[in-house]
Amino acid sequence: MLRHLLIHSKINEVLGRAGHHAKILIADGNYPASSKMGPRAELVAMNLMPGVVNCEQVLKALLSAIPVEAVNTMMYEKTGQYALSEDPPVWADYRRVIREAGLDLKLEAIEKWSFYEAVATADHVLTIQTGDQQRFANVLLTVGVRMD
Predict the structure, then answer these.
(1) Domains of the chain
(2) SS3 content of the chain, % helix, strand, coil (to 5)
(3) Which of 87, 102, 140, 148 has the maximum number of C-beta atoms within 10 A of its C-beta?
(4) Residue 59: enclosing H or E segment and its boundaries?
(5) pLDDT tens digits, 112-147
(6) Where are the beta strands (DSSP E) in 33-113?
(7) Which residue has the higher pLDDT, 87 or 83?
(8) Burial 86-120, CB ≥16 within 10 A → b, else e
(9) 128 neighbors 26 (Cβ within 8 angstroms)
(10) Rounded to an integer, what is the distance from CA 87 to the centroid of its chain?
(11) What is the pTM of this model?
(12) DSSP secondary-structure letter at 52?
């Protein structure tokens, strides 16, 4: 039996094959997962309906199961139609989940188009598409080294 929170069999299968530096994308409901993936990445669709499952829930489950060395978000637009004047509220939730997991990691934002490029690499092994409707809720995790 598994000792962590993550019980999804396909996600556990992919994570079991992933190594150091592998990238895992937790995609919000607006992310173009069908066209913005790494060449060998697998897609697990968990977007049952708007808001279910959300990115925060997936992040919590993943952090219980794998070592993570970096957490990147997609930088919000500061001008234009979708502009925000401050960090999206969901980022505070991510910081809390990271702290509760006992990790000392900072959220590092990547400019939108560079974020898409970071996902489209050979290191990208998994996209988990959620039904999260919050703006700029995408999270890209980099798998770290197991130390125990």
Answers:
(1) 9-143 (3.40.1650.10)
(2) 25, 20, 50
(3) 140
(4) helix 55-65
(5) 999 999 999 999 999 999 999 999 999 999 999 988
(6) 42-45, 68-74, 107-110
(7) 87
(8) ebbebbebbeebbeeeeeebeeebbeeeebbebbb
(9) yes
(10) 17
(11) 0.95
(12) B
